[in-house]
Amino acid sequence: MEQYHGRKGTKTNGTGGKRHRSADKKLSLMGSPFTATKLGDKQVKVLLAGRGSTFKIKLKRATFVNVVTKDGIKKAKIRNVTESPANRNYARQNIISKGTIVDTELGKVKVTNRVGQDGVVNGILA
Q: Hey, which residues does 18 pair with through a beta bridge?
């Protein structure tokens, strides 16, 4: 579900009086729905139009993670989602978000980027 990033409707101020909305909600203040990047057989990316002539790449299904090691950056296949600090149910559903620990060929990797907004999965060895 989208999240509204504007001010709340009615709220009391410090003296107990009520504040009322001075304007209606605007579409420009709405956020986009949660991408919920899942583990999949092949990578699936979605292009969304942004403001101006920009695009945002959202990753729907992820297969590989770019891992920073001592030797450099290596691409590793994701086996499973081990744990997620955002929500423990994400690990059960194989949803990848920032801070999630995934099991790969190189070992356990902690995801360091916001996957749903970058279009790739980056991480470091945990």
A: 12
> Would the pTM count as exceeding 0.85?
no
Find out whether 86 and 93 touch, Cβ atoms under 8 Å: no
Given a contact cutoff of 8 angstroms between Cβ atoms, the answer to whether 82 and 107 are in contact is no
Nearest to 37 by CA among 113, 103, 105: 113
Q: pLDDT digits over 55-110, tens only?
A: 989 999 999 999 999 999 999 999 999 999 999 999 999 999 999 999 999 999 99
| Strand 55-62 versus strand 107-111 pairing type | unpaired
CATH code of the domain made up of 37-125: 3.10.290.70
Are 100 and 123 in contact by the 8 Å Cβ rule? The answer is: no
